[in-house]
Amino acid sequence: MMFSSFLGPEYGTTQSAWKSVLTEADKLCELHTEVAERLMTQVYLQVKQWNKENYHRTMMNFRECKDKEDNFRRAQKPWMKRYNKLMVAKKEYHSACKQERSTANQENNAKGDPSVPVDQVKKLGEKLTKCKAEVEASRDKYKAALHDLNSYNPKYIEEMTF
User: Fold this and answer.
1) Residue 53: pLDDT band with limits 50, 70, 90
2) Consecutive H or E run containing 75
């Protein structure tokens, strides 16, 4: 009884394993600290010096970054103008197609309903003809905008690779 109380409550447990784990953790901590110190003293200072030599600060940011951003905006502006024109033409075309389908349905319903006056059916027919012409015009405008954007793509790619 005296022997077991002398060894303590840890007797027969994994005390030695815990001590080994903690020793290993301390060694790993020292290694990581040493690597961090070497990075801060050697690599960080070299990178900082390289940045000073290659990047020139202006009042707000680096001159090189500002030049790249300006060149990007300069290359992007004409392409974005064409793209927005394409999106407007696309929206007009889809709106015209939707209007044409709606008018065609109204005309078909009016033709099938004997209570609708003939002159109203005739007006719907005229409206459908106008809608078809509008669809054709908007389709041509959409195709022209798409062709314009596609023909500009090589120049855009060239300007974006500055």
Assistant:
1) confident
2) helix 63-112
Secondary structure of residue 60 in the 3-state scheme: coil
Give the global pTM: 0.57
Distances (CA, A) of 107 to 92, 99, 116: 22, 12, 10
**Higher local confidence (pLDDT), 9 or 22:** 22
| Residue span of the structural domain in which 46 resides | 14-54
Residue 156 counted as domain residue: yes
Contact indicator for 91, 141 with CB cutoff of 8 Å: no
Q: Let me know whether 81 and 37 are in one domain.
A: no
DSSP letter assigned to residue 40 = I
Cα–Cα dist 159/147, whole Å: 19
- Nearest Cα residue to 129 out of 96, 100, 160: 100
Question: What pLDDT does residue 68 have?
Answer: 83
Structure-block tokens of residue 66: 């500002």
- What tens digit of pLDDT does each residue of 61-98 get? 677 777 888 888 888 899 999 999 999 999 999 999 99
Q: Which residue has the tokens 């001159």?
A: 63
The most distant pair of C-alpha atoms in the chain lies apart, rounded to whole Å, by: 118
